[in-house]
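Appendix B. Raw example, untouched.
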Amino acid sequence: MSDETREFFVDQDLCTGCGDCIKAMPEHFEDTGEDTADVTASEGADASKLEKVMKECPGKAIKWK
């Protein structure tokens, strides 16, 4: 992976709404208000932290674009 993090998104059909991604990286994820999370900004995300959040997502909903 390059110095710049690739773009990522939350697959709304897989998101369980647990909020773990929001707690771990609030500058990059937000609650949609519909029991799911969404990405607010891909830019500047710490790649290693993001990989950890992706692996720990119970719905495996965080994906690379």
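End of appendix B.
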